[in-house]
Amino acid sequence: MVRRAARCISAFRRASEILRSGPHHAAALTALLSWASPAASGDAAPMRVASMNLCTDQLAMLIAQQGQLHSVSYLASDPRSSAMADKAAGYVENHGLAEEIYLMQPDLVIAGQYSTQATTAMLRRLGIPVEVFPPATSLEDVRARILRMGDILHRQVQARELVAEFDARLGHLRQQVTQRPEAVLYYANGYTSGDSTLAGQILLAAGFENATTRAGYGAGARLPLEVLVMTIPDIVITSRPYPGASRSEAMLDHPAVRAFRTGRAGATMTDHDWVCGTPYVLRAIEELAETRRAITGETR
């Protein structure tokens, strides 16, 4: 380990000299750093994994064996966006930078589809395997992402067990739906989500109809205040505001929105349960189901 670290330090000193000599030496830099990178481990289970995406962070934390996951992104420690902020504190934090990830000497990097492409491209050129996960847009995607994480971490049994538990809880929640009131998802800047989004699928699973779908919004788009008012839903679900003032969130306090919500049920979206395609979406569904029962007078 000491010998490998010394080798890497030497390589990066030489890399700094190459960078100072001009951008036309990029190919030489890539070759030099490749010389210092660890060899791929073939079909063996990766034992030093770095994740640089909030959603892959959480999937990896749920499935990886003890000591297998080395680093997660800094977002994983933010309780406003991460459902596993407490657990994330036990891992090395990264900011998705190629140099910091490389120096961790991982034998696998897990990234999101919209992670920094320059980072993932550089890591691949350096011979480090990178697995990219697209965002989940449905509850079926949640199952697929869990199983894929199990495959790449060689933890298939654990992933299948997690999926079986997910399916059982989801099936139970769906069986409890007897009435379907209408709801609107309304976020900063008047953004809304239709049925073909993960948030829209959470809404449907909780027993609501998405009023914006009736208004012609199938995916994500801005919903004008006038359209919001004309949909006349049974509930408006808004995002939880972040600390500090924000003009994008100010419209949630617009007089038209306040007037619309007066005398109607309201719910606040718990962001960290809604953001990623993980089993924590079930918690969001369960909380919304409680709200639905309060509106309709249903009993368990």
From TrEMBL:
InterPro entries: ABC_Transporter_SBP (IPR050902), ABC_transptr_periplasmic_BD (IPR002491). GO terms for biological process: cellular response to iron ion. It comes from the Bacteria. This is Iron complex transport system substrate-binding protein. Residues 48-299 form the Fe/B12 periplasmic-binding domain.
